[in-house]
Every structure is written in structure tokens, then in C-alpha cells.
Amino acid sequence: MTTTEAVPQSHAKPNFPDPYSIPTPPGAEGWQEMYPYYNLFLESRRDRDAQRTWFRNGMHFPEPMPPFDMVTSDSAFMSTGVMNTRVFALPPALGIDVRVLNGYVYMSANSVEDPAEVERRAEEFAVRVGYYYQNWSELYAKWERKMSDHIAALRAVEIPEMGEYEPRERVLAGRGVASANDLLVAYQAMLASLDAAWNLHSELLNMGYAAYLNFLTLCRGHFPEITDQTVATMVSGVDVLLFRPDDELKKLAARGIELGLAAELTSGAPAEEVRARLAGSEAGRQWLADYAESAEPWFHFSYGNGFYHHHRSWSDDPAFPMTMIGEYVGRLQAGEDLSRPIERLSAERDETVARYRELIEDPGEQEAFDEALGLSRLVFPYVENHNFYVEHWYMTTFWNKMRELGALFVRYGFFEQPDDLFFLRRSEVADAVADLQMAWCGGGEPLGPDHWPPIVAQRRRIHEALRRFSPPPALGPAPSGIVEPMTIMLWGITDEQVDKWLAAQQDGHDGATLAGFAGAPGVAEGPARVVLTPDELDTLQEGEILVAPITSPSWTPVFARIKAAVSDIGGIMCHAAIVSREYGLPAVVGTGTATATIRTGQRVRVDGDTGTVTLLED
């Protein structure tokens, strides 16, 4: 995650909607009860909050938030804030204030305005970030160990059985502390683990972006007309972990052919049926053992982005990876090369670097160019790799550990299913824990079975109603200018994008061309396939154009099917742009309205050189 910047209001522009004037969607009355007070637009703060620009965080939170899932927003934004504000003393930027409106997450940045304070923080920042850059490889290796150990510790958290009696062996060992306390400790440990994991998430992240932004700024200083895409090309071709799960699928496909299992793997039968057939032969059991080895940890890969409990992972639901393995088997049998064009990308990268470097005549400035590029390439893998460790591997483990707690509540009648737990706020889960502790310790009946089921049912209905709401991209006064490069590069929020949002809220969009960021070069035409949620991925057909609000790294295998990608959200360094460049596919990102404008089946032209999407038919 990163920051956005709000700047003073321009009198030349209309405003975005006032957050206090937006009505509640029909059927969602009472939605505010699902969220803690510190995430709401409080009426008592109207004179302050209504005067700030709030951008919707559709990149990380594209759907309305189930109540408990707000823990990911809380921990993620706290981690960004503390690293900027307290740990590294980023000179101009502090953290982010967060609000929820009709279930959707909005954010507004806190910045340092006093030049003297910026200078004071800069001195502290230079010492801290300088140490990290100088020792990056060692600190990154240490970071990987910390995250792996942290995931292992979370897995080891034990949800007590809470049976009829305290286990005899504990009693005879004179332990003295009963399982009711273990339940409280387990819940608190999971929340503390989540906060710690997100601290680790942000430990190196902003420094990774800062190194790239330094190189981007240097290039623009020498070459004012250089495009963001050209600069991105100079650091491309660097191997990152987010491609590893897809590489494992390809490896399993090749192994299946080697073991004579192609027919089984391409049968199109449900994943569990295929696995059951494979278990009936020695070759099949060998393949299943290989699958299990690949799955740990590479298939702890969320179908979404890891921020929602209902976005399960490949390890939870193997339907998608098994389907893609079958597809890869067919492609390999047809003689297709499944490898990414790394050699071609590396050659293009090196040619681009050499061409621009030669234009810099001063040897000292050439050396500065080389150093900035070298640092960008050194830190770039972390910018993507943290995503696998935290959003995917860690969060898959966290959601499933919480489901173990939910299953205990089901056993005591609090809920009908474990996932009902996610319709309680974090503080309400603590209340339910205390309720169960009291009842279990005293031999009485907990009140939860009478209290929670109707509340959960009502909140599920409200959550569905919130899904039908179309949240505006921003709230409050329009900013007079977007100048923070990370906001532009990652989020795709620019002055032009703000103008488009303002125009759309006044006039709508009825043109034949959408403008966005040139995410990956090339031009492609084909029928569109609008994919709004991860469970629609299996509808993608060969040769279609993927159109989505934003893509998840776990969608990478479908890039073998498509001709191009288009997204509503994102800038030059978003995942859709990076993956498309690595696969040699055109991409236009940050269009703002592609999913609302384009229909499935409609022919479109994606121009990744100019950043435009043309609708070729009505």
C-alpha cells in the first residue's frame, strides 16, 4: 500500500460529492453499525472532514467491506502510516486517514506543510533510509526469514477444544491456567500477528518505491519527453515471486505429460474428481506428491487480493489451478512455448538503457544514472515479492485460522457457519469470546446463540445491498493538482483522471474512446470479457480482451489466454501493467470507467502505446 495526496481546493473545478450528503442505498439502512466509529464520517467532524479530498481505495478494497474484514484496512493503513511517520520519518508525508462510506473505503493523506519541519525530518530520514539502502540485500534476506517465521507462528496458534473437561494431562501437570484463557490469548495473538505482519509489509515497501521514483525523476530531468513506460522498461525483466505460482503450474503440466497423465489432466472433470482418479495409479500418486510440493507455499495465492475473507486461495479451492494445468498440458502437446519472453524483454531493456545513457554526456551524470538504475533494479523485486508473502501466503493463513475460531463458535451455536464470524466487528468478536469464556467456565449457557444469528443475517442482507451501490471515485473538494509521483504511478490518479471523474459525474460517458495509462506496449483487437470478481475468471475465453476493475497477481495464468488487458484502476506500476509487460501483451490501465462502459462480447482495440481503448462497435 502507499499514500495519496490531497492538495488545496481549486475554485476552477467543481467538487466531488460531499460525503455527508450521499444517501444510504435502499436496503442498507443501518450500515454504519457494521463499522467502528473511527472509520465513519462522524457528524461532529463535518466541518473538518467535508473540507478534505477523499479518494476511494478501489485498488485494495474494490468491494464493500464485511465488518471483521476492516482489520485488514486498519492494519494496512497503520503500517503505512507508522513507517512514514515514526520509523523512517519520510519528510513530506505522514500517514492516511480512513473513512468508510456505504461500505467502501476512502482515504485522505496527512502531509507535512512546514518547510522547516520537512527539513528536520529529512535529516532523520537520510540516516535511516541510507542504512537500509546500503544494507538492502542483507536486510531483505532477514525480512524473508521474519515473514516465514511469522507465518509459521500464526499457524501454530492453537484454538482450544473447549470440551466438557479441561484436558486431564494439563490438570495433572499442574498447569493452573484453563482453556478459556487460551481462547482469549489465541484471539489476541491473531490480531497482534496481523498488525505485525502488516508492519513487516511496509518495512521496505516505500523505500522500494522511493528508489524507483528517484530514477524516474532523474530520467525526466535528462529527458523531459520520456514516457513512464520507457522508464519502466529499463527495470523490467527482473524475476519476481508473483510469477512463481504460474511457473509451478507449467512445471506440473510438463510433469503430467512425462508421467502419461495428459488424458486425466485435460478431461475437464471437476478438480476433486480428477484428483481422485489420479490417486488410483502409481503415476498419479507421484504427480499428486509433486502437486503438494508446489502447493506449499506457492498455491497460498488468493483469487482476489488477500484483503477479503471470501477471496479464497488456490490452496483452498484448487479448481482454477487444476483447470490451468489442463490447459497448459494441451498447449505443451501442441508444441507451444509457455515461457515468458524474458530474453526478448532483457534485450529491449538493455538496448533502451544504452540508448538513453549515451545521450548523457557528462561522466558524473552518467555515473548517477547508473547508480539510480542499479538501486531500482536491486529493490524492485521486493516491491512485488512482499505481495506474495503478506497479501497471499500470510493472509490465506490468517483467514483460515480465523475460520477455526468461527468453527468453535458454530459448535456452541453462536453461528450457522464459520464465515458468519466475519460479520462481527473485531470488538464484537472479543465480546463473543468473553461470552463463551463465561459460559464454559461456569457451566451455563452462552447468550451468543440468541444474540448473534439475527444480527449476522441482517448484516449479510445489508452487505448485499451495499454491493449494488456505485461509489464515487472521490469525495469532497476537487484537488487543484496531483503532484505526488507514487499516486500517479501506482494508483493512476492524475489531474487528467480527476478531470475525467468530474466530467463523468456531470455528463456521463458516451464516447467511443477511453483514455488511461499506457501500461504495456502494443496494439490488439478482440472481443471484450468484463470480469468483475475472481469467480468469473473461468469465463475468459482464448483471444479475448480482459476488462476488469483491477487484476490480482493470482490471475497471471489467464494472461496466457488473453490478447490484452484493460483496468479501471492503476498506474504504470500496477500489477496488470507489470504482468502485461512481462508477457508481451498490450495493456491500458487506469481508465476509470472501462467496466461500466464496455460490455462482454463487444469488440475493442487496446492501444498500449497511446493508452487508449477504442470501442469498435456499438
From TrEMBL:
Domain of life assignment: Bacteria
Region span, Disordered: 1-23
Matches recorded under Gene3D superfamilies: Phosphohistidine domain (3.50.30.10)
InterPro entries: PEP-util_enz_mobile_dom (IPR008279), PEP_Utilizing_Enz (IPR051549), Phosphohistidine_dom_sf (IPR036637)
Residues of the PEP-utilising enzyme mobile domain: 540-611
Name this protein carries in UniProt: PEP-utilizing enzyme
Species: Salinactinospora qingdaonensis
